[in-house]
Write a structure and sequence with these properties.
Elements lengths: L1 E6 L3 H6 L14 E7 L5 E10 L2 E6 L1 H14 L6 E6 L10 H6 L36 H10 L4 E8 L9 E3 L5 E10 L5 E8 L7 E3 L2 E8 L3
Antiparallel strand pairs: 1-4, 1-5, 2-3, 3-4, 6-9, 6-11, 7-8, 8-9, 10-11
Amino acid sequence: MLAISVSGPDACKFLQGQLTCDVAALEDRQLTLGAYCNIKGKVESLFYLIRNDAIYFLYPHPDLAEPTLNELKKYAIFSKVALKLCEILLPAELARSEEQQVLAQIPQLYPKTAGLFFPHDLNLPELNAVSFTKGCYRGQEIVARMQHRGNLKRRMYLFISSKCKLDPGDEITSADNTAVGRVVRVYTDPAGPVVGLAVVNDSCIKQQLKAGDCELLIKTALSI
């Protein structure tokens, strides 16, 4: 599995100032979901982070590994850290099938969806991927403002659909063709329906929704 390794005397301090999760709270061999936001507070990369002694490994989508590494390097020049891509075995805790991850409502980010969603859109606070007490990180001010204002109007939901072609990033519309969300992640069961995750406006979840020609039935969201 392709991962980003971060090592050196400033590894923890550097990542703590870049990522949404509380890096300093990680115990050895412990992992957490985390995100890397842009300055507008939108998620550019989503990954699991695991600490292995004094080295940290980030597991983003393989197609986002190199872009994430290159972005981190821009901010690492004044820190005593070493960042590189490496091939490493996936931790057993992460070796779940695509279907299992979708049903567990774990989002994924891809090159075509990078920068589309805020952490709250993807339910990242409910997944313990965002700390609101650890201090500053890139995009933190906007993410914190969304949390404390408490007027969030959309979130990520589990959906099912008939067997048809759906892709992450596909626009979701209501019956009057108003855009109300986007597909986040999809699993197509060879013997059953399509199941997936989508960010949808809360006010629209009981309406007739579709993505292209695919009708979507919204099921559940993580409890808030």
